[in-house]
Amino acid sequence: MNLTRSIAYYILKRMSEELLPLTVRMMDATDLRRGFLAALSVLKPAELTDEQALEVFRNRMQARVQTYVALIDDRIAGTASLFLEPKFIHGGGIVGHIEDVATHAAYQKHGVGASLVAELLSVCRRAGCYKVILDCDEQVIPFYEKLGFRRWEHTLRIDL
Amino acid sequence: MNLTRSIAYYILKRMSEELLPLTVRMMDATDLRRGFLAALSVLKPAELTDEQALEVFRNRMQARVQTYVALIDDRIAGTASLFLEPKFIHGGGIVGHIEDVATHAAYQKHGVGASLVAELLSVCRRAGCYKVILDCDEQVIPFYEKLGFRRWEHTLRIDL
User: Fold this and answer.
1) Smallest Cβ distance to B160: which of A63, A89, A130?
2) How many CB atoms lie within 10 A of CB B129?
């Protein structure tokens, strides 16, 4: 039911705003030439050459981290990542972990982030996930609450 | 420095308490016969047959989820899991995600959980992680703070 609500929300959001034709799909290496790192840099500067970024992309595929992109006019408008974790608990159920949701500064307020998250939730549902979790700052919680997420636990960190 | 502090803490903790000989290592399939699911069930009942658990174990290896176990007298006293996520941001740095830290009810208060987390932090350091994160309930935050973790973000969840 939460998923239905979040998909409905993103469709309505897209309908109610300036509609730029938007495609969401898995990233491929050529997206590095479509402004991928520029879109991601709203989170943190990636500080990578194209060659280094390609190596990271390969490392992420090996680590089973799925990167998704949203395209407008063949440029990267946003990105979001997903990792699927099979658990022993919950009868061997799968948990989806969403990471690094970012919308390029030039494409804010066009439902890019909501479209990306809705696509990731669809992927998780097809994979049989029983829940999807993500960590975020206090200020973006309302964005995710509109998509059906709720507050759950606390994220702790240690720097190495 | 945080890592040094957390290792010092766990060594002191182990020295100051009843010392049961403890081994921490990566899980292998035979650990299912050493009480692995019973140890994990302090989190949630796994509700798996040995055969199903073996399949989940294989799925987790394919998904690059590393499962660690702590053994006392050749029985599973506890477990903790780790996933390494290479990032585009932070110059292609790696983030360690700790999941499902559990100590068997019969082995609580012997530093099992702290030993497991310290081992995972060592693995993360060797892998070149710049940070390690985990999600937890409010009530176990003091445990992780003693190991050097600090409050970071909020965990949100959606049920599918």
Assistant:
1) A130
2) 23
